[in-house]
What does this fold into?
Amino acid sequence: MDGLKYKHNKEIEHADDYCKTIGSSYANYIIQTKIWLSCRGLSERESSKLPEEIYLIEDDNNMVGYGVIWEYNSGKKLMDKAEKEYFDKDERYLEKDFYNDIKNKTDFVFIEVLDVLKQFEHKGYASFFIKWFKVKYPRNKMYVYTLDKSRNFWFKQGFKLVGNTKWISYN
It folds into this structure.
């Protein structure tokens, strides 16, 4: 297994041009990523709302998953994103533990998406990615807005609840 990183801007937006010219397994990664991002609704976002990098998880020249990661140098930036994309206006008071935890933080990462293809689930790829990611960002606090069905996975990776919220963190 090997974690790969691709820049979003040129490669995904111009995947068709790449495929015509290189015709390799690399082109297949780009096509698969473009399809996945479309399914997740990420490709319809304005380019300013997309991360600069999308990490692909691959094994034997097959893309088995990907992660969408945001790096922040200010807690305010993640609070703004969370308020726009995750919190209903009338429920923001429920997220006070998250606000208190993040308000003075600097240099942290937000894992927005960690997705593995169905046929590759439960084979250790997501765990591998998180282990690799912890090595890449050894001193950075990491945040995830969890779905109920994925919480056990994150707990197994050493993440802890942020108060009484759906947010979890590591470090």
Q: What stands out?
A: The beta strands are 2-7, 53-59, 62-72, 108-116, 141-145, 160-161, 167-170. The mean pLDDT is 75. DSSP finds seven helices and seven strands in the chain. The two ends are 25 Å apart (CA to CA).
